[in-house]
């Protein structure tokens, strides 16, 4: 008799193969769509299955989260300005895209009219530049039904497996009278749901994460409980690393300079900055960073995650109000929770939602006492790492000036990757750096190194040097890491006497636009802005995440899958990261494979009209 836990894994393997045919049957039999009413009548599964670590006020209500598709300027709040594919009707923005069904966004048109009027000072706003499209297409109904059914079935088989079979993991013993050390559902989820696709993550590598990457092969003989190395290696096209400008190299000026820094200063300082950890390279890096960003001063830290989580408690405290975008990174969420400040979440990139919270905060003040807030801080990212969207910065700056709030901008994924000069989302929109109170970013993406920075006024940086937990207790940045950043940053600024930095910025922008437009032409659903190097491809079903990652790896393409709880339950995705080191031939190879598996695995979910002509590499034509 075949064990149940083997049958559950067998189901996981064949689910993605049969789901496409089932979806086609659901299209023809509309009566089955009544299941959708039942599924959405019960409480949302994601709210019941959320980890305890994500159960605070920072986690947005999943019932308020909705997908959308917008063709509009990304300067407008939530796609307020209608494009050539939209029109106004009875004062509403009508998008005629899907099978003749019209989606209406009346609030967007109302807000677009508001933007066209004079600002709070009575001065007409400057003309906003036109930027690329941003898309968030809705999930098809039959796909939502199958996603919920598939996840319920996985959970049922997991509980059945747990009931009758002992897991191959270490169990706590002699703990009578003790409460469980680990969260019960978290342990169950990792053992019986995540384990089935565990081979798609944590893959060991044996090379620098450049345009190509070498993976160390491994196999599992017990369905993901344990792994064995085969002693072989596979060279793959790398579409999963944050190497946006291609500075993750084993040779070249950056690697040579880092090697020289090791010979001069050693590998580490073995001390904090406030004790014996300050060395000339850290001082030079802080000055170079401030010059690059156009701010008065900057401070650097050895870890990007800690730059957010350990510095935000030094900036806000109980009695302060923080308005956080619902898609903000975990490091921001952790730092805000540690601060003790009151946190309210506004809908992703939605200026109406943000302005309502700002207006209520100014009018009503703190709960119960109605005293004014000590300070109000708006926290957003430049490029959102899971959505691929770009923050609507000019509109946020306008609101923060109107309501006298502070603005914290996390440019981890945008610094170096956006703007004509690689200076991030500020450069992308042409905004004044002085309009953002706190500029944060990391060196782990575009600079091919590690660590993070905070830049702003000299008064702000002096405050952080004394009060920051990262500056007081964390080890100072390693000399070779600092030198890698200095060299790459000077190349971007052109201080090396070449145009290499400019070429990389242009190459990245061309690669991102070309890759995104070709994916839309294939008919898959992708999220985000056309200028963003982060490209999420929606596969929805949990089993398809593993199927796509494994299939791509067999074709020598390495990428990353993302599912619940890192994303909403119905928005499982494959996240591609585009680099300036990629060539057009490499991207074409990947697109050819993606187009092939889109048919075999049923990934062509998009119901939008497709561009019929040839997508020209390097073209700025928005109609493609």
TrEMBL record:
Question: Chief location of this protein?
Answer: endoplasmic reticulum
Give me the Gene Ontology terms describing cellular component.
endoplasmic reticulum; membrane; serine palmitoyltransferase complex
Q: Where in the cell is it found?
A: Endoplasmic reticulum; Membrane
- Top EC category: transferase
Q: Organism's domain of life?
A: Eukaryota
Cofactors per UniProt?
Answer: pyridoxal 5'-phosphate
Question: A GO biological process this protein is involved in?
Answer: ceramide biosynthetic process
Q: In which pathway does it act?
A: Sphingolipid metabolism; Lipid metabolism; sphingolipid metabolism
Membrane-spanning residues: 141-160
All copies of domain Aminotransferase class I/classII large, residue ranges: 235-594
Query: One MF term in GO for this entry?
Result: serine C-palmitoyltransferase activity
Question: What CDD domains does the database record attribute to this sequence?
Answer: KBL_like
Q: What is its EC number?
A: 2.3.1.50
What the entry lists under Pfam families is as follows: Aminotran_1_2
Catalyses which reaction? L-serine + hexadecanoyl-CoA + H(+) = 3-oxosphinganine + CO2 + CoA
Write the record's keywords in alphabetical order, separated by commas: Acyltransferase, Endoplasmic reticulum, Lipid metabolism, Membrane, Pyridoxal phosphate, Sphingolipid metabolism, Transferase, Transmembrane, Transmembrane helix
Family to which the UniProt record says this protein belongs: Belongs to the class-II pyridoxal-phosphate-dependent aminotransferase family.
What name does UniProt use for this protein?
A: serine C-palmitoyltransferase
């Amino acid at each position: 008799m075949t064990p149940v836990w083997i049958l559950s894994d067998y189901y996981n393997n064949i689910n993605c193969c049969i789901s496409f045919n089932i979806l086609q049957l659901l299209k023809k039999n509309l009566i089955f769509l009544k299941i959708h009413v039942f599924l959405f009548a019960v409480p949302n599964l994601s709210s019941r299955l959320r980890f305890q670590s994500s159960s605070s006020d920072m986690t947005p209500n999943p019932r308020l989260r909705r997908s959308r598709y917008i063709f509009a300027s990304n300067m407008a709040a939530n796609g307020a300005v209608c494009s050539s594919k939209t029109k106004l009707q009875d004062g509403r923005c009508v998008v005629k895209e899907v099978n003749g069904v019209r989606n209406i966004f009346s609030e967007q048109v109302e807000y677009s009219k508001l933007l066209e009027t004079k600002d709070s000072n009575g001065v007409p706003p400057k003309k906003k530049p036109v930027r690329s499209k941003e898309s968030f297409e809705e999930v098809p109904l039959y796909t939502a039904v199958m996603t919920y059914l598939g996840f319920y079935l996985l959970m049922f088989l997991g509980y059945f497996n747990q009931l009758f079979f002992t897991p191959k993991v270490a169990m706590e013993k002699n703990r009578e009278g003790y409460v469980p050390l680990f969260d019960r559902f978290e342990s169950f989820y990792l053992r019986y749901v995540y384990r089935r696709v565990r081979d798609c993550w944590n893959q060991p590598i044996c090379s620098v994460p450049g345009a190509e990457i070498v993976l160390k092969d491994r196999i599992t003989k017990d369905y993901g409980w344990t792994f064995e190395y085969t002693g072989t290696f596979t060279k793959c096209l790398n579409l999963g690393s944050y190497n946006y400008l291609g500075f993750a190299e084993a040779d070249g000026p950056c690697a040579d300079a880092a090697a020289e820094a090791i010979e001069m200063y050693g590998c580490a300082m073995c001390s904090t900055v406030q004790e014996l950890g300050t060395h000339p390279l850290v001082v030079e890096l802080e000055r170079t960073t401030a010059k690059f960003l156009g701010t008065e001063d900057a401070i650097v830290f050895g870890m990007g995650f800690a730059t957010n989580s350990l510095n935000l408690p030094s900036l806000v405290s109980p009695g302060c109000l923080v308005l956080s975008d619902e898609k903000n990174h975990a490091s921001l969420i952790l730092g805000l929770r540690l601060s003790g400040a009151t946190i309210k979440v506004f809908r992703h990139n939605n200026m109406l939602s943000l302005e309502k919270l700002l207006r209520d905060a100014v009018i009503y003040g703190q709960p119960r006492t109605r005293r004014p807030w000590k300070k109000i801080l708006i926290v957003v990212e430049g490029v959102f790492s899971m959505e691929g969207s770009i923050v609507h910065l000019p509109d946020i700056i306008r609101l923060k000036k109107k309501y006298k709030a502070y603005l914290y901008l996390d440019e981890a994924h945008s610094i170096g990757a956006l703007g004509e000069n690689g200076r991030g989302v500020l450069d992308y929109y042409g905004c004044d750096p002085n309009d953002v109170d706190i500029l944060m970013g990391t060196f782990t993406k575009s600079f091919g190194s590690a660590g993070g920075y905070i830049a702003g006024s000299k008064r702000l940086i002096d405050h952080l040097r004394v009060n920051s937990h990262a500056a007081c207790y964390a080890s100072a940045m390693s000399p070779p890491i600092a030198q890698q950043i200095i060299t790459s940053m000077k190349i971007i600024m052109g201080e090396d006497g070449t145009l290499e930095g400019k070429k990389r910025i242009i190459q990245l922008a061309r690669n991102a636009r070309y890759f995104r437009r070709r994916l839309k032409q294939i008919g898959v659903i992708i999220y985000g802005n056309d200028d963003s190097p982060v490209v999420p491809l929606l596969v929805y079903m949990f089993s398809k995440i593993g199927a796509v990652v494994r299939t791509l790896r067999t074709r020598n393409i390495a990428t990353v899958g993302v599912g619940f709880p890192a994303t909403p339950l119905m928005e499982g995705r494959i996240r591609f990261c585009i680099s300036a080191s990629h060539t057009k031939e490499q991207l074409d190879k990947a697109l050819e494979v993606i187009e092939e598996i889109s048919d075999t695995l049923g990934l062509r979910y998009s119901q939008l009209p497709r561009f019929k002509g040839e997508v020209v590499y390097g073209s700025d034509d928005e109609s493609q």
